[in-house]
Amino acid sequence: MRSFLEAIVAKQTGWVELRYHRRLLNDFTVQKGRVDVANSSVTGGIGVRVLENGSWGFASTVNLSAAAIESAIETARANALEISKIQAKKIPALPRVTLGQGDITLPGYDELMSRPLEDKLSAMVSMEREAAGSASQIHTAMASYREIFEDKVVVTSDGASISQKLVRPELRLVAYASGDGEQNIGHTSLGVTGGWDCLFNHHKAGAIIEDTVRSAVDLLGAPHLPGGKTKVILEPSVVGLLSHEAIGHTVEADFVMSGSVAAGKIGKRVASELVTLCDSGAAEFGPTPGGLMAFDDEGVPTENTVIIEDGVFKSYLHNRESAAHFGVAPTGNARAWLYHDEPLIRMRNTYISPGTTSFEEMVASTDEGFLLVGAGSGQADATGEFMFGTDYAVEIKNGKLGRKFKEATISGVAFDVLSTVDAVGSEFKWDLGAGYCGKWQPAKVDAGGPYVRCEITLGGRQ
């Protein structure tokens, strides 16, 4: 496919990008001893972009013949010319950059492709059965498995010619508990870029049944969290959620150009000197994160982009167009969900770098506060303000962990919260690999970090 697309691009004038994408998705869900979902689907085609008269033109086709692709190129060119008639601000010439070459297959792809579907489904059946029978309070369990195989080729007229194969498996377990007229849900999800062994070597996988069931049962009858601003220790999934949602989106260069809170922050102190926050396409500090990739959807090799270094703002996240606007190199953050989607500036694996304090030391040096566990849903906006849910909170008194509280909600302004960080843990975990980021189209991402102590506002009940 790569040499085929190269031959087509070689005959074109101007700037042209061809992006072939084939996705195979397998999906199973087991509940109450029965298979509720068993789906398999294949999607594929070619996305075409041209840059003409300072404007983008886009088209796509599922027909992989040379004639159909060349027709899509002409459609994209015509679209660009029409847009250029009304577009006041023209796109500058794209910056020259070293573009990807060759063929890459990330670990796990071949191994997972060859593993029989029956084995994968059988594992979910066994997991659901064991979880459902593990405690008298559990009345229902649900186990889900999904795998997404991605085959991509990117060829551009200015030198990109690269293919990549990767697979992203995900696992979810949910347990529903009831007792004394109350119900509660425990859930665990994990995802990686890699094979079956990579998935089950994830730090959450070894005790997934015990942890999920314990979470469901232990919170039956647990008190609600009191509200107010207080000292907290964020566990890695909550650190990842904060890094991705409250910081990461504000530093995507298209949002910056639209006036996000990160505009004009380069070179300024925005956090405690203990905080270094990054976004990477590689496996930093831990193997096989869910947003792992060798190159982005413009053919730019991914890199580790330092957004905040020792509390000082260093960089935005760029595609080639925004890099030209800011006069910097692209960071490899252009991503498209499917062949018929245009690449957008998206995160990959977003995290806070580990520090030097152990978790035990962090708890022991906390007189009063809460440990917040489990990233939940929530929202953040371009001002950096956020509100998230966490699965539960554990009271800390006189340096010791105590009782659990349910329904913990946190809120604040991201840079203000990062400025209160007074301890960063030494243990790093990727923790959101089963997640999907939404920004007009989905994207597979990961996020995480160490334990982090800071001050934050808790929402609860009086």
Describe the 3D structure.
The mean pLDDT is 94. This protein has 2 domains: 2-218, PmbA/TldD fold (2-Layer Sandwich); 228-459, no CATH class. 22% of the residues lie in helices and 40% in strands. A hairpin with an 8-residue loop joins β12 (334-335) and β13. By secondary structure, it is an alpha+beta fold. The strands form 5 sheets. Strands 1, 2, 3, 4, 5, 6 and 7 form a 7-stranded mixed beta sheet that branches. It has a 6-stranded mixed beta sheet with strand order 11-10-9-14-22-19. A 5-stranded mixed beta barrel has the order 8-15-16-17-23. The chain has 11 helices and 23 strands. The protein has helices spanning 2-10, 66-84, 109-114, 117-132, 196-200, 208-218, 236-248, 253-257, 320-326, 359-364, 414-419; strands at 15-31, 34-52, 55-61, 101-105, 138-156, 161-179, 182-191, 228-234, 277-280, 304-309, 312-313, 334-335, 344-345, 349-352, 368-380, 385-397, 400-413, 423-424, 429-430, 436-438, 442-444, 446-449, 452-459.
